[in-house]
Design the sequence.
């Protein structure tokens, strides 16, 4: 199926066939549903958030790679999972703190 047909089928289902639970606490209707849909689409098309909020649009963040001992890598993964974050975020935060603590040395 093409994207257009998929969209049309989903829209038809939502308009005609979908039945929302009467006392649903999560289902949105009317203007609230439209606003939630617009916000979702805006987030979906916004792309990845900038790592550097002060960077000019179109600026690519530099990429660094590092090899870690297995135990450290597993600890990073465990921390990320416990915090509901990605390992890259945990490592980025750790490096940022290290740089700040050692900038004057």
Sequence:
């Amino acid at each position: 199926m093409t994207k257009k047909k998929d969209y049309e089928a989903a829209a038809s289902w939502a308009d005609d066939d979908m039945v929302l639970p009467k006392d649903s606490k999560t289902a949105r209707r009317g203007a609230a549903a439209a606003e939630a849909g617009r916000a979702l689409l805006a987030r979906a098309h916004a792309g990845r958030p900038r790592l550097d909020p002060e960077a000019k649009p179109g600026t690519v963040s530099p990429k660094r790679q590092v090899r870690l001992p297995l135990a450290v890598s597993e600890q990073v993964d465990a921390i990320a999972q416990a915090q509901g974050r990605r390992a890259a975020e945990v490592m980025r935060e750790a490096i940022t703190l290290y740089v700040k603590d050692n900038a004057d040395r």
